[in-house]
Amino acid sequence: MASLHESTLKTDVSAELLIAHIVQIHASICKLESLRPSKQVNTLFSHLVKLCIPSSSIDITALPEETQLIRQSLITLCGKAEGLLELEFSTFLSKLPQPLNNLNLFPYYGNYVKLANLEYNILSDNGVVQPKKLAFIGSGPLPLSTLILAAHHMKSTCFDNFDIDESANAAARQLVASDNELQRRVKFHTHDVMEVRDKLGEYDCIFLAALVGMNKVEKVKILGHVRKYMKKGGTLLVRSVKGARAFLYPVVEEEALLGFEVLTIFHPTNEVINSIILARKPVV
After folding, report:
1. For 134, what's the count of Cα atoms within 13 Å in the CB-facing half-sphere?
2. What's the rounded mean pLDDT across residues 247-258?
3. Predicted pLDDT at 119
4. Contact at 8 Å (CB) between 36 and 88?
5. pLDDT value at residue 55
């Protein structure tokens, strides 16, 4: 869910002023009749992202309750807007003669490429090079992370993508149907991850998208479920955020990964918004 990535602002803004600007943008977004892509929607969310990307001294845990509620509301709104943007482009691309050759038409494609490169390098540095089977939980209607990894980095890996929304999976399947080789390796399943049990034990590596588990309680519950059923020695890659970027996506604290061996945590400082946490389920 890298589609909200934007270029970095060069100026540093005080925490108080930054929050004031974010609150104003939240109020404007709440007045929108729809979150479907439009000039007004794109302008507001682009402004929000540009405010949140630079390094910030904001301590998310210390925010007052009112600001915490606005933050949670923004995460939900960003998720909905991101999903609508991806669905629109997935539908548009599927109508082209060679949709997978035109993924770069999506305005944030370059940021997905950077994120996939970063995640693949972190996996490789920790001994996960060409996993036989990989699960991506929360793949959405435009599964760019899976498509980039499958086409450019993990060319023999089989990908099982899980999403709770059948319409998202239907759009994603339509994209992949244009490529016989990818269609053989890339599958889509409509399930709530909390209902997937023994099947999680089939995967050498599992990705957890940033918007799977919209708050701390949900995220901890999902992580515990995945840990219980994934294979011993398997790796889990979790997307999180740091600083003001936490107004865009949920934060995953290290203590939420109880029962895992945390291998590395990486916080990008460029236009890649998501932090990356790589963990392993102990063999014993």
Report:
1. 29
2. 95
3. 98
4. yes
5. 83
What pLDDT was estimated at residue 13? 56
For residue 112, pLDDT over 90 is answered with yes
Predicted local distance difference test score (pLDDT) of residue 63: 93
CA separation for the pair 20, 133 (Å, rounded): 45
The amino acid sitting at 58 is I
Q: Please state, as a whole number, how many other Cβ atoms lie within 10 Å of the Cβ of residue 55.
A: 13
Report if pTM > 0.85.
yes
Mean pLDDT of 226-241: 98
Structure tokens at 188: 């889509």
- Residue 76 CA to residue 91 CA, distance in Å, equals 23
Q: Are 250 and 214 in contact (CB under 8 A)?
A: yes
pLDDT at 5 over 60: no
Question: Is the pLDDT reported for residue 132 higher than 70?
Answer: yes
Here the tokens at position 46 are 């682009």
Q: Could you write out the DSSP letters of every residue in the chain?
A: --TT--PPP-S---HHHHHHHHHHHHHHHHT-S--SS-HHHHHHHHHHHHHHSS-----GGGS-HHHHHHHHHHHHHHHHHHHHHHHHHHHHHHTSSSGGG-GGGSTTHHHHHHHHHHHHHHHHHTT-SS-SEEEEES--SS-HHHHHIIIII-TT-EEEEEES-HHHHHHHHHHHTT-HHHHHHEEEEE--GGG--GGGGG-SEEEE-TTSSSSHHHHHHHHHHHHHHSPTT-EEEEEE--GGGGGTS----GGGGTTSEEEEEE---SS---EEEEEE----
